[in-house]
Amino acid sequence: MRLGGATRRAVMALGALTLVSSASSAPQGGTKLSALSRLEPGLWQLRDLDNPAGQQQSICVADPSALLQLRHRNAPCSRLVIADGAKAATVQYTCPATGFGRTEVRVETPRLAQIDTQGIADNAPFSYRVQARRIGVCGQGGPSTR
Known about the structure:
This is DUF3617 family protein. Keywords: Signal. It comes from uncultured Sphingosinicella sp. The protein has 146 residues and is mainly beta. The chain has a domain at 36-136. It has 1 helix and 9 strands; from the N terminus they run αβββββββββ. It has one helix at residues 5-22, and strands at residues 25-27, 42-48, 57-61, 78-84, 88-95, 99-109, 112-121, 124-136, 144-145. The protein has a 9-stranded mixed beta sheet with strand order 1-4-5-6-7-8-2-3-9. β6 (99-109) and β7 form a beta hairpin. The longest helix has 18 residues, at 5-22.
């Protein structure tokens, strides 16, 4: 049986919500992962690895778990931990009315991480890889992610 596009999206969304609600999940900011605990808070520079000529973005990260939701930054989301190791973590998250995603963070040093994320945001798919590098302390009035 073939499902139409709208029906298929509804089934996928329902499946994702069921998965998240049936597993132990944590609200944004409440996810304490071994790998992320190695990262230092501060000013982080994000570089798109799939588009080297693209602009780099700097964000202030008070809690390193903010790096799990780069595309859904500051959205209230529930999270499901898929894997939690000393050097890597994978999380799936769902944000009511705004989408969902799956992110893997590989920690190379307390100031360097590789992030691979994909999902749906604003009714469109996204997928990208980012190198995150801590470049200093956060200044007042700059971009902020908690």
